[in-house]
């Protein structure tokens, strides 16, 4: 295989082992945050496993994986659910917006619920568009009730993005400064295919 481009994700924390590390979650330096997690050789090796998975199920697939000192472990394989590009509602065309990494499915709108801490998840109401910093596992508990999700960190290959695709929930990840730019309570539209988020100015 050949790597055509590299887009390094933003990493603010590193997660260690709860059994062996005194501080399992810690901030990383700016230098470390810019480093790639995988070398070119490892990316090509992983892509080979993906191609094998697609051959086995006979369709495009997404994989969840882990890696230790021995090598890669394939944790899960699922059919890749993607939709064609959606032509957004013209009513949103002239409103402010941001771009990010699309999860690949759906278009939705609703009231923005801007969350800066997981302790605020109880504020999320049915039909809200959840706007938050990190696409962490705790968000899975509110996925069934929201109309869309916008996160500042994370990417389209994250576990939460996979869950959103499975449930048909529009999601855009890696949207810089979303929690600062999108006013809490405003109406928001999320294009989970094009990776565009727009909101009504208050």
From TrEMBL:
Residues 125-195 form the PEP-utilising enzyme mobile domain. Its cofactor is Mg(2+). This is Uncharacterized protein. Belongs to the PEP-utilizing enzyme family. Keywords: ATP-binding, Kinase, Magnesium, Metal-binding, Nucleotide-binding, Transferase. One of its GO terms (molecular function) is ATP binding. InterPro entries: PEP-util_enz_mobile_dom (IPR008279), PEP_synth (IPR006319), Phosphohistidine_dom_sf (IPR036637), PPDK_AMP/ATP-bd (IPR002192). Residues 6-84 form the Pyruvate phosphate dikinase AMP/ATP-binding domain.
């Amino acid at each position: 295989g050949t790597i055509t481009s590299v887009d390094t994700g933003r990493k603010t924390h590193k997660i260690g082992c709860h059994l062996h590390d005194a501080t399992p979650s810690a901030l990383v330096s700016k230098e470390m945050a810019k480093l790639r997690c995988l070398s070119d050789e490892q990316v090509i090796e992983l892509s080979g496993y993906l191609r094998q998975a697609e051959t086995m199920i006979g369709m495009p697939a997404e994989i969840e994986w882990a890696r230790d000192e021995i090598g890669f472990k394939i944790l899960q394989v699922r059919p890749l659910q993607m939709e064609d590009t959606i032509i957004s509602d013209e009513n949103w065309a002239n409103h402010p917006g941001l771009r990010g990494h699309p999860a690949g499915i759906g278009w939705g709108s609703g009231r923005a619920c801007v969350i800066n801490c997981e302790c605020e998840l109880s504020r999320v109401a049915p039909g809200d568009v959840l706007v938050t910093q990190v696409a962490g596992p705790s968000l899975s508990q509110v996925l069934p009730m929201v109309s869309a999700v916008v996160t500042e960190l994370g990417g389209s290959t994250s576990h939460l993005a996979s869950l959103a695709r499975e449930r048909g929930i529009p999601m855009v990840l890696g949207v810089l400064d979303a929690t600062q730019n999108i006013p809490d309570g405003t109406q928001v539209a999320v294009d989970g295919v094009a990776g565009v988020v727009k909101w009504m100015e208050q």
